[in-house]
């Protein structure tokens, strides 16, 4: 009798944990609400069973090598292979947007750092790399209680950073080519393990950042399904 009670108790806990996830992630049609792909690059037509089938190929974000707050040279693709990325742009002397962006990124870190730290890497790239030295970034990271292994604050060549933001991530930049201006965006970008862009989110909106947390989970399910 005692064993049966224990089994029933465990089943109850499992159902209680699973039901909210199913409610949250499954649409009325019974399917997961899979994050969309962004930035189509080409469409290729092919014949399949006598019908024309069109395949859309989406932009794959190229690699970028910068220096993190620990003084390490890191590669976003090679060093983070198999990880989902969440990227934003900040600078340490920013008085307005950046503190709110970083506070919301901190909440995302909390959501995943204990449960599944190997799944996702959080990336904050400085748009003022000339002033944002390694010590400055480390101090800023500590301010937001960053796990230095799982949340990188990056600095490096300004042209490379601007090019990456504009040409790889497709951010709309204001006066990006004018010397002295900052590339600044309040967007957070979600990138899957194949380095396709899977979402642009308003990093100041907590509803949007909650959706990032949900979409990271869904991308993990997708990754396991396709074995990537």
Describe it for me?
The chain is of the alpha/beta class. The protein is built from five helices and nine strands. The strands form three sheets. A five-stranded mixed sheet has the order 7-6-5-8-9. Helix 2 packs across helix 5. The chain is globular. The chain starts with a helix and ends with a helix.
Summarize this structure briefly.
This protein has 228 residues and is α/β, with parallel strands linked by helices. 36% of the residues lie in helices and 23% in strands.
Task: Write out key terms for the chains shown.
228 residues; alpha/beta; Glutaredoxin; 2 domains; 5-stranded mixed sheet; two-stranded antiparallel ribbon; 36% helix; globular
Q: Could you give the topology of this structure?
A:
Elements: H1 2-25, E1 40-48, E2 51-58, E3 65-67, E4 73-75, E5 84-90, H2 97-113, E6 120-126, H3 134-143, E7 151-154, H4 158-168, E8 187-191, E9 197-202, H5 206-226
Parallel strand pairs: 5-6, 6-7
Antiparallel strand pairs: 1-2, 3-4, 5-8, 8-9
Helix pairs in contact: 2-5
């Amino acid at each position: 009798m005692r064993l049966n009670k224990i089994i029933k108790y465990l089943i109850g806990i499992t159902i209680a944990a699973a039901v909210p996830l199913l409610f949250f992630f499954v649409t009325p049609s019974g399917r997961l609400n899979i994050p969309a792909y962004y930035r189509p690059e080409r469409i290729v037509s092919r014949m399949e069973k006598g019908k024309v089938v069109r395949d859309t190929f989406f932009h794959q974000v190229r690699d970028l090598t910068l220096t993190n707050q620990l003084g390490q040279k890191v590669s976003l693709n090679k060093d983070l292979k198999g990880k989902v990325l969440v990227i934003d742009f900040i600078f340490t002397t920013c008085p307005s947007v950046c503190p709110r962006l970083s506070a919301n990124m901190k909440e995302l870190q909390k959501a995943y750092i204990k449960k599944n730290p190997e799944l996702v890497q959080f990336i904050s790239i400085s748009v003022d790399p000339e002033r944002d030295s390694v010590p400055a970034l480390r101090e800023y990271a500590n301010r937001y209680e960053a796990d230095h292994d799982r949340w990188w604050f990056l600095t490096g060549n300004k042209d490379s950073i601007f090019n990456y933001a504009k040409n790889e991530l497709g951010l709309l930049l204001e006066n990006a080519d004018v010397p002295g201006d900052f590339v600044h965006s309040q967007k957070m970008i979600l990138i899957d393990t194949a380095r396709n862009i899977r979402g642009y989110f308003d990093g100041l909106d907590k509803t949007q950042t909650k959706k990032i947390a949900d979409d990271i989970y869904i991308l993990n399910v997708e990754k396991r399904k396709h074995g990537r």
